[in-house]
TrEMBL record:
Protein source organism: Microbacterium esteraromaticum
Keywords of this entry: Metal-binding, Zinc
Source lineage: Bacteria, Bacillati, Actinomycetota, Actinomycetes, Micrococcales
Listed name of the protein: Metal-dependent hydrolase
Molecular function terms, GO-annotated: aminoacyl-tRNA deacylase activity; metal ion binding; nucleotide binding
Presence of keyword Metal-binding: yes
PANTHER family: ALANYL-TRNA EDITING PROTEIN (PTHR43462), ALANYL-TRNA EDITING PROTEIN AARSD1 (PTHR43462:SF1)
Record-linked InterPro entries: Alanyl-tRNA_Editing_Enzymes, Thr/Ala-tRNA-synth_IIc_edit
Length: 284
């Protein structure tokens, strides 16, 4: 058994494949190739795609694509129940399609099926994920002068606040919510938390100014892949006025910043120890 071949990095929404596993108890169908993007079980920032699987007149709704792992002994683990890190020896990594209700008998091992992703949800999550990355870069830039010590830099050369402080990220349709811990360790690393709190309005305005400039540039956005399977590394790249940026990223993204009418953020520091950044994208 081989790892699932994927086509979602190219923006594909429809594909065909051969069913390699059906588990009625877990309501999961595994196919050798899929256009569905699965939620990552270790960093579940972007939800999995939804859609349908069909063969002939048989049809089943996919409620969410997920990661699954199958041990060499044939044990199936789904999503958060996977007991090993990705790439762990003795396991094959695949994309599972969680289904709504009983899986029709025609969708059986060996059957050739058609897989179709919900295009509207995919598009809105792709906008949300790209907007999330851009917002993090703009946040780093807007906070750059608040560091008293040298730390690692982000892809634009600014101090990597995102990498140091982010504790959770959740992509949602046309946006995201990111949480950053502003604790003692960040202050010891040289971050001026008090100065940030005193100037949060100015920082938010600067972030939104940068985002408006970047959206206006209509730069190319793409995903480069190291190989065709779900376990191969994928990198998001985007052309900005300051230069091309790149992140290792397993999610989906827009093809151009021209797909946005706007991207804006709101910063919330109601808890002095926790910054919440809400990013909102509007489609062009």
């Amino acid at each position: 058994m081989q790892s699932t071949l994927i086509s979602f990095p190219a923006g594909t929404l429809v594909g065909e494949g051969e069913v390699v596993l059906v588990d009625q108890r877990a309501s999961v169908v595994v196919v050798d190739a899929t256009p569905f993007h699965p939620v990552d079980h270790t960093w579940p920032d972007q939800p999995g795609d939804t859609g349908v699987i069909t063969v002939g007149d048989a049809r089943v709704r996919v409620t969410e694509a997920v990661m699954v792992a199958i041990s060499d002994e044939g044990v199936l683990a789904v999503g958060s129940d996977i007991p090993v890190k990705r790439g762990g020896e003795g396991w094959t990594w695949m994309v599972g399609h969680r289904t709504d209700g009983v899986i029709p008998a025609d969708i059986a091992v060996g059957a050739r099926v058609t897989l179709e992703v919900d295009a509207d949800l995919r598009a809105s999550l792709s906008r949300g994920h790209t907007a999330c990355h851009l917002a993090s870069l703009a946040l780093d830039a807007a906070l750059a002068d608040l560091w008293r010590k040298e730390i690692g830099n982000d892809p634009l050369g600014n101090p990597d606040f995102e990498g140091r402080a982010n504790q959770s990220s959740r992509i949602r349709p046309d946006g995201s919510v990111d949480e950053y811990r502003l604790g003692k360790s960040l202050r010891r690393a040289g971050f001026d938390s008090e100065g940030f709190a005193a100037s949060i309005g100015e920082r938010e305005a600067r972030i939104n100014e940068l985002l408006a400039d970047w959206v206006g540039s209509a730069g190319e956005s793409r995903i480069d892949v190291d190989g065709p399977s779900i376990i191969d590394r994928r990198t998001w790249r985007c052309a900005l006025p300051e230069g091309e940026v790149a992140f290792l990223c397993g999610g989906t993204h827009v093809r151009s910043l021209a797909e946005f009418a706007s991207i804006t953020v709101a910063l919330d520091l109601s808890d002095p120890q926790l910054l919440v950044m809400t990013t909102t994208a509007v489609a062009a």
